[in-house]
Design goal:
The complex is a heterodimer of chains A (270) and B (620).
Chain A (H helix, E strand, L loop, with lengths): L5 E5 L2 E3 L7 E4 L2 E4 L7 E3 L1 H16 L4 E8 L1 H11 L6 E6 L8 H13 L9 E6 L10 H8 L5 E10 L5 E7 L3 E7 L4 E5 L11 H16 L2 E2 L29 H14 L1
Parallel strand pairs in A: 1-6, 1-8, 6-7, 7-13, 8-12, 9-12
Antiparallel strand pairs in A: 2-5, 3-4, 9-10, 10-11
Chain B lengths: L1 H4 L12 E9 L3 H16 L18 E4 L11 E4 L2 H6 L12 E2 L2 E7 L10 H12 L5 E2 L2 E3 L13 E4 H14 L3 E4 L4 E7 L2 E7 L2 E3 L5 E6 L3 E9 L6 H10 L10 E10 L14 E6 L7 E6 L4 E9 L9 H9 L2 H7 L3 E11 L10 E2 L2 E3 L15 H21 L5 H13 L2 H9 L10 H13 L13 H4 L6 H14 L3 H8 L15 H9 L1 E2 L8 E3 L2 H6 L4 H4 L6 E3 L5 E3 L9 H4 L12 E3 L5 E2 L5
Parallel strand pairs in B: 1-2, 1-14, 2-9, 5-16, 14-21
Antiparallel strand pairs in B: 3-8, 4-8, 5-7, 6-7, 10-11, 11-14, 12-13, 15-18, 15-19, 16-17, 17-18, 20-21, 22-27, 23-26, 24-25
Helix pairs in contact in B: 2-5, 2-9, 9-10, 14-15
The chains are: A alpha/beta (270), B alpha+beta (620).
């Protein structure tokens, strides 16, 4: 018999990964240069969680998906016009700043409060989804902290698959080292799952899904409350992008053996 | 490759989802921005007004949806200077500081650029003129440039705005959708119009889950039919719905679309600590002509925060079939006038766009049963003043006012009703007056650069009363096939030797110096796709560039579509025919009008259809 879940997906928005990012130190701490100018997307890890949530809800009738996101309202609205076509959900919007330099504890507190305030959310059916990492320069701990605040003690990270069983329990595949998965059995909701990439492709954009979602997206944006996420004690010494180096050289008439020899030497020098 | 790019046979019928709305808009740019802003404002004044009750879903407000091809509403491709009359009329209290990269126009200068290299294709007459300038005009020459002491009034943008269209679109969309009335959906290419006899009854979105030829694969999702009482066509000069309407209805008697240009530009960031007396202050506007080729006009606009848009326009009447905008742009910014200010800058973004330059000569039917056309695709661009954004915006506003009028009168969106409201408003507007003045302003350029300047000045200074006559051939006939033949053999050998594109090699063979790549400002075309252009295409859509007859391509020696492809998405295969890579296409549409050998009955051997993806840059 299918199990009905209440799936809450926590998903931030991040600059489109195709953009050139440049950290700068502003008066309020580190930030990304021109971040408000850059197009934004749903955090790719959390997007996987959303697609898995939508799939799980579709295969377990009676289930429902909420998407909880904190960002400037205008930016969030923009991203929702793309995301809303991908999966059916009800948006819970929290008006907050952009960027991955916000204190994870403050963010977790704001999101936990927003989740607790969702009308009709049944804790006994609750699956809290999110990304196990983030493309937003975050510390990758926000989801766990939300779980702690909501007293969700069954937590799984690096999840690639969930299989619900007849009795409402479910099997979870978590990534471990060496390309292996750890198999766990959870007796049922409530639980927290931090998703890796999952196994589902990005859904096609469906205009009808988008239209249906808009019935909740626009009102949610209009009533989004500002979140207090300032953390006066937090101080960043520095921020920098991962080092990137691209060395291009054009060689003609080089033998495969010479190429292989040079590659081996280059790899060995790393 | 040939099999992959052929136009598919008719698709089998499939069950499609359908939806009824009141107004469906195709494309989100300045024209739709103006339309939705005005319409939203009218609704906001009295949301309970029964005129705004939906006919499609009774009891609900008017259902107004806009579908945009680009993956993000900010992915516009144009840094512009605009007089902004229409925009400011919509936002009387407009503060440019609220819009990223926007600034009030402060200074305008016009420069004639001499060729410091000696590689450009200058006529004997022009060379003589240059020699005179270099000697008699020496006191007025600085940095191989001659500044016009007087800027013609028709070029002035006093009181105007320097904008990034990407950022402006984003700002407008935020205002519109924040009101909760209209919805703007990105990443939604519109494949076709729903014709019913002589009426348009809506649109069909592009199929998803198909291969390159459009054949269904895993996850096939047929594009939805969106049935609408009014379809607002604002998909620009190469939009699929605009093209479909032109093919279905034809153009008005005597009209033709024969003049085009490709605008390509960089967005650069100047280094910090700019000198206080730097001429590149926010709001600075420079217009140039004369270099890298006489026919190529250039521009430089300065945004706030040390950002600069710098670019060129390559017209269809630049006869050389080896024309290539990217390399020309690199030579342009290295002209001494610009290079002294830009040499330490960093390339942040890059993009390209086709401009429909026929003006009123290319104006389509502006409205019909169930549809209206606004913006650049409706022929609103003013070719004399070189402006199109404000004109496009204004046509959108005019249509919105007309829609509100018809809603209040309870009249349907028929040809007669739209003609008596929208077309009447447009004909009585500044857009129309400007278009009439500009109608023949470019006539002389088909006969040479100097004659073109004379014709432009004549039209500009007399308000369009006087102009030169011209016979303007189709774009393919504007190519002068002999222009590159002298160096073709040498260039081909060079191209084969080092693997460069043929057009690139041709320019080298003609005397253009190699571009000294520095990995920061001067980068290879391929690197620009990664560094500045951020091109991406969603999987699951069919190719949007298809070749009608690859046999013709195999016989073509010009390969102008390859040379002019802004993203190197069209390349020459080993079998001598071009192939298309959707993942590299920036959707500039240049290939459509850069075909040297169109089949009989067509202007081009290429079709530019509805497609997903393109540039992912908000700074354009």
């Amino acid at each position: 018999m299918p199990t009905a879940f209440h799936i809450v997906v926590c998903a931030g928005i991040v600059p489109d990964p195709l953009q050139s990012l440049e950290p700068v130190m502003g008066p309020a701490g580190p930030a990304l240069k021109n971040e408000m100018l850059l197009p934004a997307v749903l955090d790719p890890w959390a997007a996987s969680a959303l697609y898995e949530a939508a799939h799980l809800a579709a295969t377990n009738p009676g289930s429902k998906v909420w998407l909880v996101s904190m960002a400037p309202k205008a930016k969030l609205q923009q991203v929702m016009m793309t995301v809303a076509q991908k999966a059916a959900f009800e948006l819970v919007a929290v008006d907050g700043p952009l960027g991955g330099f916000i204190d994870a504890h403050a963010t977790a507190a704001a999101l936990a409060d927003a989740i607790s305030a969702i009308p009709g959310l049944d804790r006994t059916k609750l699956l809290l989804f999110g990304g196990w990492e983030s493309a937003s320069r975050g510390a990758g701990v926000t989801l766990q902290l939300i779980g702690e605040r909501l007293s969700l003690f069954d937590q799984f990270q690096g999840v690639d698959q969930i299989t619900v069983r007849e009795d409402g329990s479910f099997e979870v595949l978590e990534r471990v080292e060496g390309g292996q998965h750890q198999v766990s059995i959870c007796s049922g909701a409530p639980a927290l799952l931090g998703w890796a990439t999952g196994n589902l492709p990005e859904p096609r954009s469906n205009p009808q899904v988008g239209m249906a979602n808009m019935r909740t997206v626009m009102p949610a944006l209009q009533k989004a409350k500002p979140a207090a996420v300032a953390a006066p004690g937090l101080h960043y010494d520095a921020a920098q992008l991962p080092a990137q180096q691209r060395q291009t050289r054009v060689e003609k008439d080089m033998t495969p053996e010479d190429i292989a020899r040079e590659l081996v030497a280059w790899i060995g020098a790393e | 490759m040939s099999a992959e790019t052929q136009i598919p046979e008719t698709q089998p019928a499939v069950d499609r989802a359908a939806m009824d709305v009141d107004i469906a808009c195709v494309g989100f740019g300045p024209a739709t921005g103006g339309f939705l802003t005005e319409l939203t404002r009218a609704w906001t004044e009295n949301p309970a007004d029964p005129a705004f009750e939906s006919r499609a879903i009774p009891g609900m407000p008017l259902q107004v949806l806009c579908y945009e091809r680009a993956d993000d509403l900010a992915s516009g491709v144009s840094g512009v200077v605009t007089r902004g009359h229409g925009i400011r009329a919509s936002f009387p209290a407009l503060n440019p500081a609220e819009i990223p990269m926007a600034a009030d126009v402060r200074t305008e200068r016009v420069f004639y650029l001499l060729d410091p290299i000696g590689a450009s294709r200058r006529s004997a007459l022009l060379r003589l003129g240059d020699a005179v300038l270099r000697t008699a005009g020496r006191p007025l020459l600085h940095d191989s440039a001659f500044e016009l002491p007087w800027t013609p009034a028709f070029l002035h943008k006093h009181g105007g705005l320097v904008l990034s269209i990407g950022q402006f679109n984003q700002w407008v969309a935020s205002q519109v959708m924040g009101a909760g009335f209209a919805q703007i959906w990105p990443g939604s290419p519109v494949a076709s119009a729903l014709f019913e006899n002589d009426a348009v009854r809506g649109i069909r979105l592009a199929d998803q889950g198909v291969d390159k030829q459009g054949t269904p694969t895993d996850g096939f999702m047929p594009g939805m039919d969106v049935r609408a009482q009014l379809t607002v066509v604002a998909d620009g000069p190469v939009g699929s719905i605009g093209q479909a309407l032109d093919a279905y209805l034809g153009l008005p008697q005597g009209h033709a679309r024969r003049e085009w240009a490709l605008g390509m530009k960089f967005v650069l960031e100047l280094p910090e600590n700019q000198p206080a007396d730097s001429p590149l202050q926010p709001g600075t506007v420079w217009h140039t002509f004369g270099f890298p080729e006489p026919e190529i006009f250039g521009f430089l606009y300065v945004h706030p925060d040390r950002l600069v848009s710098v670019g060129i326009f390559l017209p269809s009447w630049l006869g050389d079939p080896a024309r290539t905008s990217y390399r020309y742009l690199q030579h342009f910014i290295q002209h001494p006038l610009l290079w002294q200010h830009l040499k330490d800058a960093t390339l942040r973004s890059w993009g390209a766009k086709s401009l429909e330059e026929s003006g009123q000569h290319g104006e389509p039917f502006l409205s019909g049963n169930g549809f209206a056309r606004i913006g650049e695709g409706s022929g609103s661009t003013n070719m004399l003043t070189g402006s199109g954004v404000d004109e496009a915006w204004s046509t959108g506003v005019q249509l919105a006012q007309s829609v509100v009028e018809l809603l209040h009168q309870g009249k349907p969106f028929t040809r007669e009703n739209l003609a008596s409201t929208y077309e009447a408003r447009r004909r009585a507007s500044e857009v129309e007056r400007g278009a009439r003045e500009a109608r023949n302003a470019r006539n002389g350029f088909q006969s040479g650069f100097v004659r073109g300047l004379v014709g432009m000045a004549l039209a500009g200074l007399t308000g369009g009363k006087l102009s030169l006559g011209a016979h303007i051939p189709p774009p393919a006939n504007q190519l002068r096939h002999s222009a590159a033949s002298l160096s073709r053999e040498k260039a081909a050998a060079l191209a084969i030797e080092d693997g460069r594109p043929l057009h690139d090699a041709l320019m080298s063979a003609r005397g253009w110096p190699e571009v000294p790549f520095d990995g920061r400002l001067l980068v290879s075309h391929q690197d620009a796709l990664l560094l500045g252009g951020k091109v991406q295409a969603m999987p699951g859509f069919a190719d949007h560039v298809v070749f009608r007859d690859l046999g013709l391509c195999a016989c073509c020696e010009d390969h102008t579509c390859v040379a002019m492809c802004s993203g190197q998405a069209i390349t020459l295969g080993s079998n001598g025919v071009p192939s298309f890579e959707r993942e590299k296409c920036v959707h500039c549409g240049a290939c459509l009008w850069n075909c040297a050998h169109p089949p009989a009955g067509y202007d081009s051997n290429l079709q530019f259809l509805a497609g997903s993806g393109g540039l992912h840059s908000a700074e354009n």
